[in-house]
Amino acid sequence: MKTIAQLTYIPLYTEHPQEKVQDLLEFVAQQDVEVDVNYLSTTVKGDTDLIFDLVREIYDEMTLEGEQFRFHVELLSPVEE
Fold first, then answer.
1. 20-70 pLDDT, tens per residue?
2. Cα dist. 24→14, 41, 57, 74, 77 in Å?
3. How many C-beta neighbours within 10 Å does residue 29 have?
4. Cβ–Cβ under 8 Å, residues 46 and 2
5. Closest C-alpha among 2, 3, 1, 7 to residue 55
6. DSSP alpha helices (H): ranges in 1-81?
7. Strand 69-79's sheet: what is its strand order?
8. What CATH number was assigned to the domain covering residues 2-79?
9. What is the CA radius of gyration of the chain?
10. In this structure, what DSSP letter does residue 26 have?
11. Which long-range contacts (CB under 8 A, 24 or more apart) does 47-50 make?
């Protein structure tokens, strides 16, 4: 089974939001997940533990940067491999 998560990251109160989003996309692309970048969100598909670890790692990293953000995570029902 594979878990699918739709991620939307919105940096708040920054002069360079596109740069922040691009940094996040580059990070996600380095992970062992399938990535589909769309206009308003990014979909990742992979092992359930890996997806949940990735969501936590993204959240922790954005928190460490000390900037305000919105991070929406939508989980879809699992799919067969």
1. 899 999 999 999 999 999 988 999 999 999 999 999 999 998 898 888 999
2. 15, 12, 11, 17, 24
3. 12
4. yes
5. 7
6. 17-29, 48-64
7. 34-37, 42-46, 2-11, 69-79
8. 3.30.70.930
9. 13
10. H
11. 47/2, 47/3, 48/1, 48/2, 48/3, 48/78
- Tell me: the pLDDT tens digits for 71-81? 999 999 998 87
Which among 39, 42, 37 has a CA at the least distance from the CA of 6?
A: 42
* Entry field: residues in the chain: 81
Other beta carbons less than 10 A from residue 7's beta carbon? 20
| pLDDT classification of 12: cutoffs 50, 70, 90 | very high
